[in-house]
Amino acid sequence: MPEYKEMEKVYDPAKVEDRLYEKWEKAGLFHAVPDKDKEPFSIVIPPPNITGQLHMGHALDNTMQDAIIRFKRMQGYCTLWMPGTDHASIATEVKIVEQMAEDGVTKDDIGRDGFLERAWQWKEKYGNRIVEQLKKLGTSCDWERERFTMDQGCNNAVVETFVDLYERGLIYRGDRIINWCPDCCTALSDAEVEHEDKDSFLWHIRYKEVDGGDGVVVATTRPETMLGDTGVAVNPNDDRYKHLIGKNLILPLMNREIEVIADEYVDMEFGTGVVKMTPAHDPNDFEVGARHGLEIIRVMDDAAIINENGGKYQGMNRFDARKMIEKDLEELGLLVKKEKYNHSVGHCYRCSTVIEPIISKQWFVDMKPLAEPAIKAVKSGDITFVPDRFSRVYFNWMENVRDWCISRQLWWGHRIPAYYCDDCQEIYVTKNPPDKCKCGGSLRQDEDVLDTWFSSGLWPFSTMGWPENTAELDYFYPTNVLVTAYDIIFFWVARMVVFGYSQMKEKPFSEVLIHGIVRDDQGRKMSKSLGNGIDPLEVIDKYGADALRFSLINGTSPGNDMRFSWSKAEATRNFANKLWNASRFVLMNVDQTVKTPNTEDLDMSDKWILTRLQSLISEITLHMDKYEMGICAQKLYDFIWSEYCDWFIEMAKTRLYGDNEKEKETAQSVLVYVLSALLRMMHPFMPFITEEAYLHLPGSSDTIMMAPWPTVVDEFVFGKEAYAVSEVMEVIRAVRNVRAEMNVVPSVRAKVMLVTKQIEDYAPLTSYIEKLAWASSVEVKEDKEGVDDNAVSLVCSTCEVFIPLAELIDIEKEVERLQKESEKLQGEIKRANAKLNNQGFVAKAPEKVVEAERAKIKKYEGMLTTIQERISGLKG
Fold first, then answer.
1. Are the C-beta atoms of 12 and 587 separated by less than 8 Å?
2. What is the mean pLDDT of residues 87-99?
């Protein structure tokens, strides 16, 4: 046990949190080493970008992970929380290019090697920033194992996977339609395109027949792509156009002949039933064009500038070309109409530029065969989503998955391990490339890098040393749970499952815990444009990390968005002060030799709080196992504030300040025992204040982090006696409420008389009623004999309470209060009767629920009769 020091009068997070975190880290308490005598529990962190700044989403995600890992650590598991950061190809390269622009240099000026040198300098300077911010939050990651998606180990895993999939025929290089960002000048996967509904237009353009006939009218949202049309498609069953199939039309503006083809892809009911075919600029047109052997003509360069295939429009950007094309079509009388049209437009997820579908030679992963075992894993329950509804998002993406474009036209990232011989066109995809081609020619490596999500998809096992067979991999893989937001289920979660089964032949994790996003107090998404964002570091500076963590967790539920506000953080700070003050009060009134409670010495209030504690331990453990941390936080909050502080501490004061030493020692032992359990259960959510308070407890260990999680002690579960205290608390609340309604000050005391058939329950507890209900005396009896007709009457579940009116109230106000109680009870009876008169409710509800409603009616009717009798008595 640490040397005892008196607790500070006021808890100051700024003086405590950094000190404790440094202590934990130096002691190696976060570090995990495989231990065959313990059961493993592991989590891998969703690696934040090295360009990242801690935001509320990070704070929520990492608080949830930390709560789970601290809970499991205290339960005795060998826990690994694997930390690390992501190189974030596009985002980081953009930042570095912007920084270079300020220095007046470009990528071309310094070359690839010079650029990568700057990139690694950036990583060293800024890459650890978010790690330090996560430490401020109190995250107990195993920082000794920190990984980076471009460290040598992760690179080995990337190359191993790429070569393996290539040799299995699941990675290939080819010309296909990809999503292209003209601003970032790189390909994007489907998951990296964000779609937004935009108001635009639908242009109806006439394509005439070669012989001068009217031809057809096509409708398009991107008229600039018509420059690359190589066909027009109609449905073979469309009687309107059967006579045109196989004939040629004149492509407006380009005066090039294009053929009318028939394909069932065309929806006869949509638009004019005619679709222009631009195989180089539309994924569906590409597939149709491949079936019919249509020519592929690309009319834009990488910056979305019309190229030499665009005729007179060459050199114009796509949107300027659109305006000019519209003008020219009008002049030629070929623009039939232009109508307003709202449709979904893809944007780059990084820079928000409108993406351009474009034909390009890229590297792809054939996803369908890889998706099959990943789909089966979730359907079989081998992997589960919490909540389960998010499995539908997963299935929707996986069952409709398209080939994944994995090459990126960037310099920062894992370079593709493909090597080309320009002499004989041989391609080598290998971990160890030869010095020269077999023809004797020199080799050059592919210029492109891999999509960031390729390396991130390997994260659960690459971080543990794969492709080497490490002790960590053998012990900690597969991991237990992944904690992440719902917006990256297809970005990251699905790909980790795919790679887990592909490379490890095993799932990467058993459960996927999905959380929502953090919104402001009005329910709006936090954003720079709205100016409603809250910096978590500012909250920590003002109220402490514990206040931030608990306010994020309290009330949240898996999968649902939550609201955060400064007032919520302030309320949590107040709760932290309540916990600190309660701990300080207890420790000021106990000595350091306090023992475990002895059941033979307990009074009824001890038995009540100990019974309630066992119930709480059972509930918190159950909800933690189900990741229902919001429920845990609320239950702990209610128990600590109300049952422990407001009730039990107040009940214990009589013995603490009394002359009976044995009763005093018993009260002390129960106070400390319950406080210890509460601090341990609160620790996953509020690690700092619980550690600081725990270290002052008699018999505490060196750190609460390694203290055992509380378990239910059967000998501390009491039945009748514990229930009796609950009944007395009901009486005290009732007396307090009526005194408050009548504005009776605490200094004015009055006799309290209890009429009940359960005298043996109430008699031992009259001292608590006297103290906490401001009674001059308390009498418990079986009948109303001797009760003043003008006494205030309170009806509780197992007794009636009478307080003489003489110096407290006037009769008229008491009658008015009782009438309100009567109306309230009548409302409850009416509501319960309505339920029982509903045949649907009676037929469908469980019998216990129906019986409970009947019991309520009987109880309320008895209380109503009593109140009405009392009203009649007061009125005389």
1. no
2. 90
